[in-house]
Amino acid sequence: MSKIQVMDTSLANKIAAGEVVEKTMNVVKELVENSIDAKASVIKIELIDSGVKEIKVVDDGIGMDENDAVLAFSRHATSKLKTLDDLFNINSLGFRGEALPSIASVSNILLKTSDGKTGTIVSLEGGIVKEVKSGDIKRGTTIIVSNLFYNTPVRLKYLKSLYTELANITDYVNKMALSYPNIKFILINNGKELLNTSGNGDLLKTILNIYGNIVASKMMYIESENDDYMINGYISYPELTKSNRTSMTLLVNNRVVKNNEIIKTILEAFHTYIPKDRCPYIVLNIEVDPFLVDVNVHPTKMEVKFSKIDSLQSLIYETITNKLNEKTLIPKVMNEFVEDNYYKDTKETNFFVNDNLYENEEKKELVEKKQVEEITFDFDTFSTKEEIKDDEVVIQEDSRIKNMYPIGIVHGTYIICENDHGMFIIDQHAAAERINYEKYYHALSTHSKNTIDVLIPYQIELTSNEYLILEKNFHILDRLGFKYEEFGSNTIIIRTHPTWIPKYAPLEAIMKIIDIIILNEDFDEDKFNEKVSITLACKMSIKAGDVITMPDMTYLIEELRKTKNPFTCPHGRPTIIAYTKYDLEKLFKRAM
Ligand code: ZN
Ligand code: ZN
What we know:
This protein is α+β, with helices and mostly antiparallel strands. 38% of the residues lie in helices and 24% in strands.
């Protein structure tokens, strides 16, 4: 029976053909998804000039018979979906429509396909079938789309943005590889291999193929569920970040989607663990009943909406924060060294989203070799293994930098410490900031009502505009435990303040809080607490260069040890870095 069916016209109208093919990325997407629909286990994408000259997709899927091969290019024919309802069923890939005829109309196409019984070759020019003949019967489909946009003005535009287009295609193929770890994806542009995944079904292995060894060795598995949703996937250690969101992949029932609310939740979970403008690496799969998901019908977008989004957001938030809290997250200097060399040419100037793009063969071999040890390395069960190297203990042990004592200080800022495992360097400002941040945040969020009456009341004068805003927000001052009076025009007097206000500069701290109230009128309570805690922690903590004594250092380390996250300051900078004993031995070539 023919697998291709003629689509009903209301659906055809819903999907505007022109939009589907306005980018080479969309052509690649269409062809790759056809291959996936054909149950391919290997999909090879070969591009010439980012696909503008030629896109060749070869798969080993179920192929087509002669009838389907010709019908595939006639308008309103599709094997993918039959009714509008199918558009909403996220279980099937197909919510695109008549893309193939549209692609054919602006290019030359050569299709070779075989269902294993008959082989067919169809060639088209500008959508017109030129020739149909029989071909070999090796199962699978090869489609070559050449001279894309040759008969439209769009082509010129693309010649200018080949790099952007390639970056988009790479990002797309990477994400498809992450959603189908059991399919082998090969992506080549102008003879250069950009991606080659194993297709063995192991998601971590696919992460390694895409992002490289360093990233793969610093991913943590997460898994969790509630009544409505099940999530699983990998998140990176906070020390591993990227300046844009291409490192974040969201899957719903193993299909790549976009959803800004979920991205926001993930970033919130990483908040204070990583710098504000950075993104973690994450591959998160959300398993859900398709009835709880609404897919945007636009064929080229992958936006989804979730009902019960709150339930999903809290599940994701809690799962990630729990994972981050249970790990010891001190960046290791030796890794930093490697990383710097590794990513030397992939800084912000690089067009390509794939950090791994320009790896030479040597590095690739290294990756293959190293991954065997590193990938199978399971931190959670590690302690049961017999042989434990010193440096691994540091990562494994969750003793919160135990038994660490100061040796001295460098540049009036970096405290050198040691314990049995190695040498550590602590940034005194970042450490103090973390300690104070958690202290303030705790006091604020538990509504601590301990207050102090001041001997000489503080008189604070504001501009009339500022005063008006403050007046509207007096309830915030009440909530914090301040006692105050209005005094003349635009002036208030503070008689009592909460005890957590730093004793050595209370007026400065109070002014900061009032500033925050005035500047950020519409904060919810939690955001306000957060903002106050970070601002005060930064302003009120010892600075780089401030002189501190040995007992001060000991106290600082001890206090840092007690924090929930001793490893980063509230802005996401590291507080502490480690040279393990093993690192030192390696650096001095005592150990190899
Ligand atoms: Zn600071
Ligand atoms: Zn900071």
